[in-house]
Amino acid sequence: MALLPVFRTIITHFFKPKTLNPSLSPLFHEPAAKNLSFLSKPKTLSKPHSSLNSKATLLLNGQDQRFMGLNGTDDKLISTTIAAIVTSVGGPPSSVGIVRLSGPSAVEIAARVFKPMRKKKKKGFCVWKPTSHVVDYGVVMDHQGNVVDEVLAVPMLAPRSYTREDVVELQCHGTEVCLRRVLRACIEAGARLAEPGEFTLRAFLNGRLDLSQAENVEKLISSKSTAAADAALAGIQGGFASMVKSLRTQCIELLTEIEARLDFDDEMPPLDLNLIMEKIHSMSENVENALKTANYDKLLQSGLQIAIVGRPNVGKSSLLNAWSKRAE
């Protein structure tokens, strides 16, 4: 009985529900096309058909957050289909660039612009009938019927995709001109230009990623060292999330046993206080270790500023060169 307030305090302190903050949006950061003001206003699709899996529900404060805005109000964030360039632009041209579509009408919009080449050396184009995770070769055409680029279309149907929505990636030639022309064709076909990080945001809202994994996506993209990339990748694979789930499970088990003893103490074996205290101390150590690694993670992301100070010709440059070679 005396331990009951202790366990309730643990549960409340470490696992109390938190509401989404509007300032979270910058956390979901991905490479997106810049200077896209040339794109016309996207057309609104009539009666979009949602491809979300109703079983994959993310509950927060008793509400399904997949269909809630960042401010807790209903919006059409998930019901629209978005498109964006997901490979870097603005630098030297590359051989391949990718335009991604995600949403309930991704396949429909892609079929409007993508025309697969006929097999068996027949001339002309055919209607695209995609198979999930099967690559098709063809061309992208604009609304006037002009060929924009030769591409590879990679459909990834829900829920087997990054966002758990229907996703189509158009692998184009990597020049900025080709990528923008393909993106323009998708926008004119009915897609909406994605906000920075909106693909990861949708993955979070659809339950594909939890908040810690979504944050590590941004850290992996912006990492500047191998150690930072490894730490972010471990977070994406669920290292921190699995630890939190384990702590939550242990707390619930302890609390369940204590609650049961309030009514059925006579029918249960004697309570082993030493064993319970050992579990509590073990969970406390895990939490303390997690807090310590938070500071280490900040150092990996920001790095350390070091000054090599000494008299002339004492080996400062040699030391710096040796460190640089070891880092390589």
TrEMBL record:
Classification via Pfam families: MnmE_helical, TrmE_N
Sorted UniProt keywords: GTP-binding, Hydrolase, Magnesium, Metal-binding, Nucleotide-binding, Potassium, tRNA processing
GO molecular function: GTP binding; hydrolase activity; identical protein binding; metal ion binding
Ranges where the MnmE helical domain occurs: 211-305
UniProt main location, coarse: plastid
Any one of the GO CC terms: cytosol
SUPFAM superfamilies: Folate-binding domain, TrmE connector domain
GO biological process, one term: tRNA methylation
InterPro entries the UniProt entry points to: GTP-bd_TrmE_N (IPR018948), MnmE_dom2 (IPR027368), MnmE_helical (IPR025867), P-loop_NTPase (IPR027417), TrmE/GcvT-like (IPR027266)
Keyword presence, Aminoacyl-tRNA synthetase: no
Ranges for domain GTP-binding protein TrmE N-terminal: 81-208
UniProt subcellular location: Plastid, Chloroplast
Protein name: TrmE-type G domain-containing protein
Biological source species: Salix viminalis
